[in-house]
Amino acid sequence: MSLLKVEHLHKSFKGLHVLKDVSLAIGAGERHVIIGPNGAGKTTLFNCITGTLPIDAGTVTVNGQKISGLPAYTAVRVGMSRTFQKNNLFGSLTVEENVQLAVNACKPHRFHFLKPLARYTETVEETESLLKQWDLWERRSRVVNELSYGEQRLLEVLLALASKPKILLLDEPTSGMSPAETVQTTKLIQRMPRSITLLVIEHDMEVVFSIADRITVLHHGEVFASDTPGNISGDERIKEIYFGGGTLQHAEA
Ligand SMILES: Nc1ncnc2c1ncn2[C@@H]1O[C@H](COP(=O)(O)OP(=O)(O)OP(=O)(O)O)[C@@H](O)[C@H]1O
């Protein structure tokens, strides 16, 4: 059975039909990458899946439980976490403080302003574990505004992991990164345990083909193809719509 299912999803903005009858079925543990030209509707699809945007028609289910049409926190409750194209970090705080806040926000107890964060032993321990596991321990005291753009994006992925998600949606995790940062982020994604199902929007084909189990091509808001990386890279029609006939393996958006 699929863990995440999108069925016949439609979404318009004031008459502009951005998603048309989109269906996807993603198995537990799968690494599923969404590709498609700019404006194809990829981020809108993420927003509809996570409930950030209301949908016009169709359903989104997780483990058979319908989450579409319900408040956005429902997606979080069923184990979904996501990153955005733009950073959502507290720039004047340190790396460690940002992670502590994210870890603490996922705890059932309420934050108490009179207690310093460090007194929440569990939060501190989980923060340390996340920072060590994802190679940010050495940079824990750095103020976020002083990090490179790529480091900030990496931190965002770590914050999304703080809620121990079952399904993690990453929106262009390597965009704006240096080649070295892209390699580091790709390795981080590859290292994620299969207990986390991944849905990733990505333009960099090196990254796409090094992480994907399956690839869905969105074109003008429709699923043009959904297949294995081998079949996608060999499909001449996809090369044509996506790259005007260029190579799929090493092209950049
Ligand atoms: N809130 C909105 N209101 C109106 N139009 C929107 C809104 N969000 C997205 N759109 C339009 O929907 C279309 C798809 O946008 P979307 O951002 O989903 O594409 P994308 O495939 O993620 O593109 P990119 O690769 O450039 O990020 C675009 O024409 C965009 O202008």
TrEMBL record:
Residues 4-245 form the ABC transporter domain. GO terms for molecular function: ATP binding; ATP hydrolysis activity. The keyword Transport applies. Keywords: ATP-binding, Nucleotide-binding, Transport. The keyword Cytoplasm does not apply. Coiled coil: none annotated. It comes from the Bacteria. GO terms for cellular component: plasma membrane. SUPFAM superfamilies: P-loop containing nucleoside triphosphate hydrolases. PANTHER family: CONSERVED COMPONENT OF ABC TRANSPORTER FOR NATURAL AMINO ACIDS-RELATED (PTHR45772), HIGH-AFFINITY BRANCHED-CHAIN AMINO ACID TRANSPORT ATP-BINDING PROTEIN (PTHR45772:SF8). This is Branched-chain amino acid transport system ATP-binding protein. It comes from Brevibacillus fulvus. The lineage of its organism: Bacteria, Bacillati, Bacillota, Bacilli, Bacillales.
